[in-house]
Structures are given as C-alpha cells and as structure tokens.
Specification:
The protein is an alpha/beta fold and about 240 residues long. The protein has one domain: NAD(P)-binding Rossmann-like Domain (Rossmann fold), CATH 3.40.50.720. The radius of gyration is 17 Å and the shape is globular.
Length: about 240
C-alpha cells in the first residue's frame, strides 16, 4: 500500500497533466493542480497560477499547504510550444518557451523543496519529452527547454539527495492528446511508422509511470530519465 501524499501537478487542467491528476486521485492521494484557466479533474483542488510568475506560484503553494498540507510530490508538467524553424523563430518565441517550460520548472521546484527538506521526504518529477534528447526540426526552443530539465533534475539530486528527496525526468513520446489529434492524418501515420511500438501512447500510460516514481517503491531512483515513448528515442 502506497503512503497517501499531498501532490501538486502544474498544468493539470488538460492532456497529460489532467490524466496524471486523475491517476493520483484514484489512488487516494490529496491532489492539487495549477491552471491558468480551466479546472483539474473532479476530486482535485484547482489553484490559479502561472509558472512564469513567482508571486502567483507562492500564493498557489500557500493555498495548497493550508488546505491539503505541505507538498510532498511535485509534478512539473506545465509547458507551451511555439514551433517554427529556427531561422524564422523570434527571440520571444525562444525565451517564452524557456521561461515557461524550464524556468517555470525551476520556480516550482525551488518553492516545493523548502517543505520537502523540512519533511526529509520529497518526490520531484519533471515532465520532459523524447525531443529533449532526440531533437526535432521546428522545435529548437521546445527541445532546449525539455533537455534543460535533465540538468535541473540531476543537479537537484546532488543537492537534495541525502535528505530523502528524489528528482527524476519522465520523457514521453507521442501521446494521444488534443495536440496530436489536430495533426494531419498523413503526418500521424508517418509518426507512427517511426515508433517501434507502432502507436501513440495514452495519457494514462504516462500517468502510471509518474505515479510509480512518486511512490514508496521508487525511493532509490533519482536523476533518471524514464522514457515513455514506445522505443522512439532508444539510445538517446
């Protein structure tokens, strides 16, 4: 039986974040999600926050701490894309993605780690992407932000590892979400051909890996990259 924990998921109002929240709720954990708009699933506490704004994050954490207790499991999932080829990419396209996906993760990890150190327990899970290591044309900004999470997790492991805190990276491949559903059918077929598993993952398949990493059985895993990509990024 897994110990019931207080869990905070950033960007929990849709897609993978929503599925992660549902999975934790189903196992009886106390779950909060941050959202800029919309709501997390039934049973989750939704707090309004923008990961690019430290003050809004601090207020969100304070609300979660008051209502559910100190955050013991943090899933940094909030992310945006501004896809375009590098030569057409504006500096804002680059810095906005870095500020949300990478600096945003730094902000929430820093805020969560204070309570984790006090409790001598913490699980930090950063949601990266297969393109963080594989690269992707048209995603110089997104790939850079997602590979940056690996250095973040590994440095946090070295700083906080002796205090019962783990920091790991989950790297999903192509997932069945609203974003992939909008791709042209031919493009979806081409992507499937490149995936050894021959299909996209469900958001639930990513969520179950994250729940396991957050649990008691994964206490000796830290600084790891767990791919959930059907074999797409093997060796990367």
């Amino acid at each position: 039986m897994t110990t019931q924990r207080t869990v905070l998921i950033t960007g929990g109002n849709r897609g993978i974040g929503y599925a992660i929240a549902e999975e934790f709720i189903a196992l009886g954990h106390r779950v909060a999600v941050t959202a800029r708009s919309g709501e997390g699933p039934a049973g989750a506490l939704t707090v309004s926050a923008d990961v690019t704004d430290s003050a809004s994050l601090d207020a969100a954490f304070t609300e979660v701490e008051e209502k559910l207790g100190p955050v013991e499991v943090l899933v940094a999932n909030a992310g945006i894309t501004r896809d375009t080829l590098m030569l057409r990419m504006s500096e804002d396209d680059f810095t906005d993605v870095i500020d949300t996906n990478l600096t945003g993760a730094f902000r929430v990890v820093k805020r969560a780690s204070k309570g984790m150190l006090k409790a001598r327990f913490g699980r930090i899970i950063l949601v990266s992407s297969v393109v963080g290591l594989l690269g992707s044309a048209g995603q110089v900004n997104y790939s850079a932000s997602k590979s940056g999470l690996i250095g973040l997790a590994r440095s946090v492991t070295r700083e906080l590892g002796s205090r019962g805190v783990t920091a790991n990276v989950v790297a999903p491949g192509f997932i069945e979400t609203d974003m992939t559903a909008e791709l042209p059918e031919q493009q979806q077929a081409d992507y499937r051909k490149s995936i050894p598993a021959g299909r996209f993952a469900t958001p639930e398949e990513v969520a179950k890996v994250i729940v396991w990493l957050a649990g008691d059985d994964a206490g000796y895993i830290s600084g790891a990259i767990i791919p959930v990509d059907g074999g797409l990024g093997m060796g990367h």
